[in-house]
């Protein structure tokens, strides 16, 4: 029997404060991390960045899955739309509540999740708009690391070996060397 | 009774292929991740980068711990010295063996560990010099994420709330807002 709670909540990542020149590499790392660890897609504010979208879409087309990339959306609008549709917002910040203390509550909520990661400074308002402010360590850390560890914990450390649908290329685990198979 | 096996193995991170202009942000993320998640220090090849060292040393001086940063060392020499001193080398790469399958063996080895993370392309030789090639997902991912998840797993998901000795500043976990205390 399928009940409404069997629906898998959607999980999107919102990368805020992206500046094309300065942040392209780190934002690319955010997107690859989100995809590899099971998010459904990423929304990047504030600049439209076609090169970033193309890079990530190329990876998805080669290695599979249905990961979406949207750039250039103002963060307040993205948040407001998410809340309006009934979703919850998780903000990853060193100032928040420790991940081990709060992950159970987040995991057991059935709503769609928008996971927000900032570059350097984020607007103070965000701490109040978020449903949960979550600290992956209460130390200065990378938003890329924070996202990686958050997703790994959210999915109970079970996503690392999961494959992707429609992959054209597949990496074959090897002790010493590189092996890639074409589908 | 203290036996020799009670000694906690040293854990250092080797960041290879660092180019000052291109990689400064991502390498900073690697260093902050290594520190926050319990590594003892980082060695950065190939360029000497005083600004990077100063940034990380300032974080350590404010937030505590004894994290070391060394830049400008050739990677082959760093690896050779590590092996000569009896340490083991872990290379994080999407081509390696799945983390969940191999982490037990790495965790139970008592030797010091050098965890190698590359930028973009790494020399093929490295796959053969490493004692373990470890994949944090067999997908294109960030080396920052790979390092974060590897360290979290290595320390059995118990490091996230650990404090640091001699901190001048301490972040106080807060539901909605920012709170920092001076020691």
Plain-language structure description:
The structure is a homodimer of 183-residue chains. Chain A is an alpha/beta fold and 183 residues long. Chain A is built from 6 helices and 8 strands. In chain A, the strands form 2 sheets. A 6-stranded parallel beta sheet of chain A has the order 3-2-1-5-4-6, sandwiched between helices. The mean pLDDT of chain A is 94. At the A-B interface, α1, β4, α4 and α6 of A face α1, β4, α4 and α6 of B.
Task: List descriptors.
homodimer; two-stranded antiparallel sheet; 183 residues; alpha/beta; 6-stranded parallel sheet; 8 strands
Please write out the topology:
Two copies of one chain form a homodimer.
Chain A: E1 11-18, H1 20-36, E2 41-46, H2 50-63, E3 68-71, H3 75-84, E4 88-98, H4 99-108, E5 113-118, H5 126-129, E6 132-135, H6 143-154, E7 169-171, E8 180-182
Parallel strand pairs in A: 1-2, 1-5, 2-3, 4-5, 4-6
Antiparallel strand pairs in A: 7-8
Helix pairs in contact in A: 1-2, 1-6
Offer a quick outline of the entry:
Two copies of one chain form a homodimer. Helix content of chain A is about 35%, strand content about 25%.
Q: Using a beta-carbon cutoff below 8 angstroms, give the protein chain pair with the largest interface and the number of residues from each chain.
A: A-B, 59 and 59 residues
Shape of chain A: globular
Number of strands of chain A: 8
Strand order of the largest sheet of chain A: 3-2-1-5-4-6
Backbone CA Rg of chain A:
17 Å
Structural class label of chain A: alpha/beta
**Portion in strands of chain A:** 15-25%
H/I helix tally of chain A: 6
Regions of chain A with pLDDT < 50 over 5+ consecutive residues? Answer: none
- The succession of helices and strands of chain A, N to C, reads EHEHEHEHEHEHEE
| Main sheet properties of chain A | 6 strands, parallel
Distance from N terminus to C terminus of chain A (CA atoms, Å) equals 35 Å
Oligomeric state as shown: homodimer
Question: What is the arithmetic mean of pLDDT of chain A?
Answer: 94
The helix fraction of chain A, in percent, is 25-40%
């Amino acid at each position: 029997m399928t009940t409404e709670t069997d629906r898998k909540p959607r999980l999107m990542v919102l990368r805020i404060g992206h500046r094309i020149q300065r942040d392209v590499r780190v934002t690319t790392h955010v997107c690859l991390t989100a995809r590899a660890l099971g998010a459904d897609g990423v929304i990047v504010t504030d600049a439209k960045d076609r090169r970033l979208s193309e890079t990530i879409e190329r990876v998805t087309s080669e290695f599979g899955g249905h990961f979406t990339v949207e750039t250039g959306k103002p963060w307040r609008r993205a948040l407001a739309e998410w809340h309006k549709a009934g979703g919850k917002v998780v903000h990853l910040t060193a100032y928040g509540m420790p991940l081990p203390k709060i992950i159970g509550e987040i995991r057991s909520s059935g709503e769609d999740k928008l996971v927000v990661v900032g570059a350097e400074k984020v607007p103070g308002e965000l701490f109040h708009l978020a449903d949960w402010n979550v600290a992956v360590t209460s130390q200065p850390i990378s938003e890329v690391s924070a996202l990686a560890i958050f997703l790994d914990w959210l999915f109970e450390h079970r996503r690392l070996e999961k494959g992707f649908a429609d992959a054209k290329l597949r990496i074959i685990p090897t002790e010493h060397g590189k092996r890639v198979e074409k589908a």
